[in-house]
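FORM 7B: Structural annotation worksheet

SECTION A. Query
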Amino acid sequence: MDPELEAFVPLFPQADFTDPAASRKLFAGLAASVPLPDTSGMEVEDLAVPAAPGTTAAGPDVPVRLYRPHGARGAVVWLHGGGHVMGDVHTEHPWATRIAAESGAAVLSVGYRLSPENPFPAALDDAYAALVWAAANAGRLGLDPGRIAVAGHSAGGGLAAALTLRARDEHGPAIRFQLLNQPQLDDRQETWSQRNFTATPWVDRDKVAASWRHYLGGRPATPYAAPGRAEDLTGLPPAYIATAEFCPNRDEGVRYALRLLQAGVSVELHQWPGTFHGSQAIVSADVSRRQNAELGAVLRRALAD
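SECTION B. Predicted structure
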């Protein structure tokens, strides 16, 4: 493990999703301890977007937070991590601000509904509603509807991948690019990393399994819930996929990248040595600074003229 990261491992709390409410409280406390980011170079606005028509269970308006750097032309629909159990637009504020600042694109951070109270497809319906809203309102916001990316971390990375499948299948809004950071893609947990990483920091095999139990709610997984199960990956947007060495999700991310390539989709894959799931939160470490800067740079290139 990277020595700068290893020094922080004893400080990472244990959250196993046994009690979702307690996990959320712990996560919110961690997020609140982070210094507020500088938003002087952008406009930040809390909004509510309507549920997308035709969703399987039309939900309430979806809370989103829009970050618009001055001069932004592209847009990113950003989906937070948290195992489908934790997180909202408030806990995601530091990360969404950083993505907007470093990419130069407008970022629509989505406060999708959480499980187990709202199992699949609630989160995907909310993400799709945000995508539809972004495409419909891009012109009004001074953005280019032809420059929309979807992106996410962990469970949010899996949602972003599912969003590209659904938009393709339903002839929805055009997605120019997908960025999947340490994505959670496959409920079967059959890869080497899923079977062997049983005591890795912050996220291990059991925590991933609990996440899937809450998200699926006892129902069989479909490709829209677990994109790793999708048989047809043709026609999807170009992708950037990043994995962490000591992460249960590592091998399914690598496998998904290879399958996209075999389906004719252009892919950039970056496996970060010495890192673990969520270690980017240790922003003082050199490897974290490089990881975070790369996410912004990748989106900036993908949404450029």
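SECTION C. Observations
Residues 80 and 240 are 16 Å apart (CA to CA). The first strand starts at residue 42 and ends at 49.

SECTION D. Sign-off
Analyst initials: ____
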